[in-house]
Amino acid sequence: MSRYVGAIDQGTTSTRFMVFDREGTVITVAQEEHAQIYPAPGHVEHDAAEIWAKTQKVMREALAKGNLTPQDLAAIGITNQRETTVIWDRKTGKPLHNALVWQDTRNDRLVSEFAHQGGRDRFRDLTGLPLASYFSGLKLRWLLDHVDGAREKAEAGDVLFGNIDTWLLWNLTGGPEGGLHATDVTNASRTQLMSLKSLDWDEGMLREFAIPRAMLPKIVSSSEVYGEAKGDFAGVPIAGILGDQQAALFGQTCFTPGEAKNTYGTGCFALMNTGEEAVPSKAGLVTTLGYRLDGQKPVYALEGSIAITGALVQWLRDNLHMIKDSAEVETLAATVEDNGGVYFVPAFSGLYAPHWNEGARGLIIGLTRYANRGHIARSVLEATAFQTREVLAAMAKDSGIPVKELRADGGMVANGTLMQFQADILDVPVVRPKVSETTALGAAYVAGLAVGYWKGLDDLKRNWGVDKRWTPQMDAARRETTAAMWSRAVERSFDWKADED
Prior knowledge:
Blueprint: E1 4-10, E2 14-20, E3 26-33, E4 45-46, H1 48-65, E5 73-80, E6 86-89, E7 99-100, H2 108-118, H3 124-127, H4 136-146, H5 150-155, E8 159-162, H6 164-172, E9 182-184, H7 185-188, H8 203-209, E10 218-220, E11 223-228, E12 237-243, H9 244-251, E13 260-264, E14 268-275, E15 286-291, E16 299-306, H10 310-318, H11 328-333, E17 343-345, E18 363-365, H12 373-399, E19 406-409, H13 416-426, E20 430-433, H14 438-450, H15 457-463, E21 466-470, H16 476-493, H17 496-500
Parallel strand pairs: 1-5, 5-12, 9-10, 13-19, 19-20
Antiparallel strand pairs: 1-2, 2-3, 4-7, 6-8, 11-12, 13-14, 14-16, 15-16, 17-18, 20-21
Helix pairs in contact: 9-14, 10-12, 12-13
């Protein structure tokens, strides 16, 4: 029996291949960044061909570093940046345009047009999602409207669509030579084209958005053997797919309704397991698929998506050159005791949950002659914690279940200053697991379950353990005062782009 399970973790800024053993321990890993393309304000693109090339490279490198062969892998799972939209030629395998990244807002006029006709929530009951530039469906519509010949070829079945999971699965299993064109329920739920009840493409939504069904992938469960890899990894089953945030939920073993996690990455994404019933949101969250195991009922989740968190630290590094390395932000923030009255609202591409204000733009407010680089750095970290607080408050309101503990993962959980402030402003413990990069682990878990490498969810729960716990230390009066100031700052960011236009 093969000894390990592999996971492709294709994220917004990089691609990794990680190999795990039965205890969920990382055996080997390789990682490569890919280019971030900004052709115009609000436009964010990736080269899908580059992503596929980098994926192949890290898969080979990880095995070489671990002195492994493909035969050592029982299965491979895929997790991916969601909503990032790719269209490609079925016959040649070449993308027709750069991928439109989930942060891209060039479809905001389409969002406004559809919202004007029936309100921002007109499709929420059916799809779980508000109208927003974030989701794949209207990104796909923009591509069909603006790429020469794309619509005609799509209607003929010669152009295929997918989020990055579909693009990778198709290429891994043969590409133009019989590659599988499929996506799992979690990624399909991010298109605004799938019905939450039927778990199939909704004909009404396809008509509304003018999307040819012929270009859409088959919707499958999150854990089943889809097919075998070709090429370097020939014969290895591809057996699991989860959108990155659902993968982190699964990797954190949040299998019980009410359990919640927050992933601190380029953006922040908090998910709460709500069980086998889809809970409609009245507080600005989205209702999404958590996961679906082969032959079992789907598990739903409430999600709060925050566009800019880790990306704000990168902006501080790359645009303002205030730090040379992202890790330096904690050192700089530690030079001051508090934020000095400075608040940073990072609405670079509008605000997502719970506000959904497309016209919001970033601001720094509260500046005085007293403020220095340390206060700016601290306000950057605190912005992540404040936004998370807003999302978890909305979850408690929608579900009726207060979050008693937050399981945290992602790159920013190494920042102790941020994690302590997060516990302080939430007034609940924040827990970092032994394996903090749970996104890849979740993808490995669903793939391993599909081939019997793990027998069931209890095996996975036994693997989860606490690495560090932060408990609240801030007094209640200060907590409420600083949170109120944050809310005032957020309100001032609203509709800036609309006013400018």
